[in-house]
Design brief:
By secondary structure, this protein is mostly helical. It has seven helices and no strands.
Length: about 140
């Protein structure tokens, strides 16, 4: 609670941003604490959803830097696996971005959407919707408990 009292909404923004990158942690606990500390739910929503969205955008653009040879050499991902991901992403397109809020698969999905050059405008709209809906649910849940 001290952390929440000290950093408040700005801290929530940065934690939500970092949680949407390849760093392995979650922003929900901090958000839950912010609700319990009595911070404005509207401020909590905007800080968390915008921070998490911008973290997802950074993953998307990180993906655009990727090269097939790097995936094979450093990540040990075969060309066949990459082709399967490409087929999946080309089949469902930017609509998959709504799932970037998911733990474990969300960040790699955002990177893959960038790697396969999906249209940013559509990716970003659906990405924001997914992330915002998740935070609406977490704020609602924290308020109920």
């Amino acid at each position: 609670m001290e952390l929440i009292q000290e950093y408040g909404i700005v801290g929530l923004f940065f934690i939500s941003f970092a949680a949407a990158t390849i760093l392995p942690f979650s922003s929900e606990a901090f958000l839950f604490g912010a609700v319990k500390a009595g911070l404005s739910k509207i401020d909590i929503f905007w800080a968390a959803s915008l921070g998490n969205f911008l973290g997802g955008v950074s993953c998307f653009y990180l993906g655009q830097l990727g090269k097939l040879s790097w995936c094979e050499k450093y990540l040990k991902i075969s060309k066949d696996q990459i082709n399967r991901w490409q087929d999946l992403i080309q089949s469902y397109g930017p609509g998959l971005a709504i799932l970037t809020w998911l733990p474990i698969v969300g960040d790699p999905l955002a990177v893959a959407l960038g790697y396969f050059r999906c249209h940013p405008k559509y990716v970003f709209v659906t990405m924001y919707i997914g992330k915002a809906l998740r935070y609406v649910f977490v704020i609602w849940l924290a308020n109920k408990l």
